[in-house]
Design brief:
elongated, 9 helices, four-stranded antiparallel beta sheet, five-stranded parallel beta sheet
């Protein structure tokens, strides 16, 4: 279960202009199995990752090195995560901070946001969502905006919520749009039915339900043409993905 769910700034900007958005991330987490898994996923996504397991070291690193983003657990040995965040903001350090919190820790999440956190993620979490949220807070910090997703002939504008297949406009329901957006954000990566249900529908269904299959079929019909290979590929017994060669 844990494997799927853990429920150089100038160089970054140059690469972003080329379409390669590398990020240097400081991951602060004292639970080794979580930090190992998260670091592995971030590195596979192309990030440069430094890991530390206590708040005192995290504060020192963040003050004397440049990072594009910081993933900060609240419960840490030494100085806790909120104390680290408070010190950073008092010293006018604007490094984007994503807090890791317990699902029930509402007061801590609110306090963290008031102290200047850019976002938070509750445990357990999927590494894909961690990656997406880090990219989002880093883009907001640098001014880089991702407003259009493309795969094959399909173009999705996240601001206007318009979808085109070539030059032809495609009308999608709200749920179909959310499903397509979620798949397009991870081209080539297999997304399980459980992941899709939680991210698109927002709550748990019986994983054996055919709800996802029905929506995938509708998307294929709306996005594909006669004789075309489908944009969304079925990985039997696992889930779905956007074909890598289409992205």
């Amino acid at each position: 279960m844990l494997q799927r769910r853990v429920r150089h700034r100038g160089r970054t900007l140059r690469n972003a202009r080329k379409g390669v958005f590398e990020l240097k991330v400081l991951l602060v987490e004292d639970e080794k199995r979580i930090s190992d898994f998260a670091a592995k996923g971030l590195r596979e996504a192309g990030f440069t990752v430094e890991v530390c397991d206590n708040g005192d070291e995290a504060l020192t690193r963040a003050l004397f090195q440049q990072y594009d983003a910081m993933v900060l657990d609240i419960m840490l040995p030494g100085r806790d995560g909120l104390s680290v965040l408070r010190q950073l903001r008092e010293k006018r350090n604007a490094t984007p901070v994503l807090l890791l919190t317990a699902r029930t820790a509402l007061d801590e999440r609110v306090e963290g946001l008031n102290l200047g956190a850019d976002d938070y993620l509750t445990k357990p979490f999927y590494v894909e969502e961690l990656i997406a949220r880090i990219r989002a807070v880093a883009r907001r910090n640098t001014g880089e905006k991702l407003t259009v997703l493309k795969a094959g002939n399909v173009t999705v504008n996240l601001v206007t919520r318009e979808v085109f297949n070539g030059e032809a406009a495609v009308r999608l329901t709200t749920r179909e749009f959310s499903l397509l957006e979620y798949l397009l954000r991870s081209p080539g990566r297999v997304l399980t039915r459980t992941q899709i249900l939680e991210h698109v529908w927002g709550y748990d269904f019986d994983p054996s339900t055919n709800l996802i299959d029905v929506h995938i079929q509708r998307l294929r019909k709306k996005l594909g043409g006669d004789g075309q290979e489908p944009l969304i590929e079925t990985v039997r017994g696992v889930g779905y993905r956007v074909r890598k060669e289409q992205a």
